[in-house]
Design brief:
The chain is α+β, with helices and mostly antiparallel strands. It has helices at residues 7-12, 57-78, 125-140; strands spanning 20-23, 27-31, 41-45, 82-86, 102-107. A five-stranded antiparallel sheet has the order 1-2-3-5-4. The longest helix is centred in the middle third of the chain and has 22 residues, at 57-78. The structure holds adenosine monophosphate and zinc ion (ZN).
Length: 142
Amino acid sequence: MKKDDCIFCRIANGDIGSNTVYEDEDFRVILDLNPGSRGHMLILPKEHADDLFELSDEYCEKLMLVARKVALAAKEALGAQGINLVQNNGEAAGQTVKHFHMHIIPRYDGDDRGMVNWTPHESDPEAQKQIEEAIKSELSKM
Ligand code: AMP
Ligand code: ZN
Protein backbone atom coordinates (compact mmCIF):
# COMPACT_ATOMS: atom_id res chain seq x y z
CA MET A 1 0.00 0.00 0.00
CA LYS A 2 1.23 3.50 -0.66
CA LYS A 3 1.10 6.08 2.15
CA ASP A 4 -0.01 9.61 1.27
CA ASP A 5 2.13 11.20 3.99
CA CYS A 6 5.30 9.43 2.85
CA ILE A 7 7.55 11.43 0.52
CA PHE A 8 9.14 8.36 -1.08
CA CYS A 9 5.71 6.79 -1.71
CA ARG A 10 4.74 9.97 -3.50
CA ILE A 11 7.96 10.09 -5.53
CA ALA A 12 7.88 6.34 -6.31
CA ASN A 13 4.32 6.60 -7.59
CA GLY A 14 4.97 9.72 -9.65
CA ASP A 15 2.93 12.18 -7.55
CA ILE A 16 6.09 14.24 -7.02
CA GLY A 17 8.61 14.74 -9.82
CA SER A 18 12.09 13.26 -9.68
CA ASN A 19 15.06 12.49 -11.90
CA THR A 20 13.90 8.99 -12.76
CA VAL A 21 16.43 6.76 -14.50
CA TYR A 22 14.41 3.52 -14.38
CA GLU A 23 10.85 2.45 -13.64
CA ASP A 24 8.93 -0.80 -13.73
CA GLU A 25 5.69 -1.93 -12.09
CA ASP A 26 7.37 -2.41 -8.70
CA PHE A 27 10.20 0.11 -8.47
CA ARG A 28 11.31 3.60 -9.41
CA VAL A 29 15.01 4.45 -9.44
CA ILE A 30 15.79 8.13 -8.95
CA LEU A 31 18.84 10.34 -8.58
CA ASP A 32 19.51 11.25 -4.95
CA LEU A 33 18.76 14.93 -4.30
CA ASN A 34 22.00 15.34 -2.32
CA PRO A 35 24.33 12.91 -4.06
CA GLY A 36 27.40 11.51 -2.37
CA SER A 37 28.91 10.96 -5.79
CA ARG A 38 28.11 11.61 -9.44
CA GLY A 39 25.16 9.39 -10.31
CA HIS A 40 24.14 8.46 -6.73
CA MET A 41 20.77 6.72 -7.14
CA LEU A 42 18.00 5.42 -4.88
CA ILE A 43 15.86 2.37 -5.63
CA LEU A 44 12.36 2.96 -4.26
CA PRO A 45 9.68 0.25 -4.08
CA LYS A 46 6.27 1.62 -5.12
CA GLU A 47 4.63 -0.13 -2.15
CA HIS A 48 5.39 1.34 1.25
CA ALA A 49 7.67 -0.57 3.58
CA ASP A 50 9.43 1.23 6.45
CA ASP A 51 12.58 -0.82 6.01
CA LEU A 52 14.03 -4.14 4.89
CA PHE A 53 12.10 -6.03 7.56
CA GLU A 54 8.77 -4.83 6.22
CA LEU A 55 9.64 -5.42 2.57
CA SER A 56 7.81 -8.42 1.11
CA ASP A 57 9.72 -11.48 -0.07
CA GLU A 58 8.57 -10.74 -3.60
CA TYR A 59 10.11 -7.25 -3.53
CA CYS A 60 13.28 -8.56 -1.91
CA GLU A 61 13.70 -11.09 -4.68
CA LYS A 62 13.27 -8.56 -7.46
CA LEU A 63 15.36 -5.83 -5.84
CA MET A 64 18.81 -7.22 -6.55
CA LEU A 65 18.09 -7.62 -10.24
CA VAL A 66 17.12 -3.96 -10.48
CA ALA A 67 20.18 -2.98 -8.43
CA ARG A 68 22.53 -4.85 -10.73
CA LYS A 69 20.89 -3.44 -13.85
CA VAL A 70 21.10 0.23 -12.85
CA ALA A 71 24.56 -0.22 -11.32
CA LEU A 72 25.84 -1.62 -14.59
CA ALA A 73 24.20 1.21 -16.54
CA ALA A 74 25.88 3.78 -14.27
CA LYS A 75 29.24 2.08 -14.69
CA GLU A 76 28.93 2.24 -18.45
CA ALA A 77 27.28 5.66 -18.75
CA LEU A 78 29.36 7.52 -16.18
CA GLY A 79 32.64 5.64 -16.33
CA ALA A 80 32.47 4.66 -12.66
CA GLN A 81 35.26 2.34 -11.58
CA GLY A 82 33.26 0.88 -8.69
CA ILE A 83 29.76 0.80 -7.18
CA ASN A 84 28.67 0.63 -3.54
CA LEU A 85 25.23 -0.71 -2.63
CA VAL A 86 24.16 0.75 0.71
CA GLN A 87 20.91 0.18 2.52
CA ASN A 88 20.23 1.70 5.95
CA ASN A 89 17.66 0.30 8.40
CA GLY A 90 16.84 2.22 11.57
CA GLU A 91 18.19 5.46 12.98
CA ALA A 92 21.17 3.65 14.50
CA ALA A 93 22.14 2.68 10.97
CA GLY A 94 21.65 6.18 9.59
CA GLN A 95 18.21 5.77 8.03
CA THR A 96 16.62 9.20 7.69
CA VAL A 97 13.65 8.46 5.40
CA LYS A 98 11.33 5.75 6.70
CA HIS A 99 10.50 4.21 3.33
CA PHE A 100 12.80 1.41 2.22
CA HIS A 101 15.44 2.53 -0.25
CA MET A 102 18.68 1.14 -1.55
CA HIS A 103 21.52 3.51 -2.41
CA ILE A 104 23.47 2.78 -5.57
CA ILE A 105 26.65 4.83 -5.29
CA PRO A 106 29.00 4.99 -8.27
CA ARG A 107 32.62 5.31 -7.18
CA TYR A 108 35.54 6.85 -9.00
CA ASP A 109 39.26 6.27 -8.54
CA GLY A 110 40.52 8.73 -5.93
CA ASP A 111 37.08 9.94 -4.79
CA ASP A 112 36.08 10.56 -1.17
CA ARG A 113 36.98 7.32 0.60
CA GLY A 114 35.07 8.40 3.70
CA MET A 115 31.73 7.94 1.99
CA VAL A 116 31.11 4.34 3.00
CA ASN A 117 33.44 3.20 5.75
CA TRP A 118 33.78 1.82 9.24
CA THR A 119 36.56 1.43 11.74
CA PRO A 120 37.86 -2.15 11.75
CA HIS A 121 38.41 -3.47 15.28
CA GLU A 122 40.45 -6.46 16.32
CA SER A 123 38.14 -9.42 16.93
CA ASP A 124 38.13 -11.65 19.99
CA PRO A 125 37.78 -15.33 18.98
CA GLU A 126 35.60 -16.17 22.00
CA ALA A 127 33.26 -13.26 21.40
CA GLN A 128 33.11 -14.12 17.70
CA LYS A 129 32.13 -17.71 18.57
CA GLN A 130 29.33 -16.47 20.84
CA ILE A 131 28.05 -14.16 18.11
CA GLU A 132 28.22 -16.98 15.57
CA GLU A 133 26.17 -19.23 17.89
CA ALA A 134 23.61 -16.52 18.72
CA ILE A 135 22.90 -15.72 15.07
CA LYS A 136 22.81 -19.39 14.04
CA SER A 137 20.40 -20.15 16.87
CA GLU A 138 18.09 -17.32 15.78
CA LEU A 139 18.26 -18.51 12.16
CA SER A 140 17.33 -22.04 13.15
CA LYS A 141 14.00 -20.67 14.50
CA MET A 142 13.08 -19.03 11.18
P1 AMP B 1 19.04 7.38 4.28
O1 AMP B 1 19.97 8.16 5.15
O2 AMP B 1 19.55 6.04 3.92
O3 AMP B 1 17.63 7.36 4.85
O4 AMP B 1 19.00 8.18 2.92
C1 AMP B 1 18.04 9.08 2.55
C2 AMP B 1 18.50 9.66 1.23
O5 AMP B 1 17.37 10.25 0.60
C3 AMP B 1 19.56 10.75 1.36
O6 AMP B 1 20.69 10.37 0.57
C4 AMP B 1 18.88 12.00 0.81
O7 AMP B 1 19.76 12.83 0.10
C5 AMP B 1 17.82 11.41 -0.07
N1 AMP B 1 16.61 12.21 -0.27
C6 AMP B 1 15.84 12.78 0.68
N2 AMP B 1 14.78 13.41 0.12
C7 AMP B 1 14.90 13.23 -1.22
C8 AMP B 1 14.14 13.64 -2.34
N3 AMP B 1 13.04 14.39 -2.20
N4 AMP B 1 14.54 13.27 -3.57
C9 AMP B 1 15.66 12.52 -3.73
N5 AMP B 1 16.43 12.11 -2.72
C10 AMP B 1 16.07 12.46 -1.48
ZN1 ZN C 1 6.37 5.18 1.66
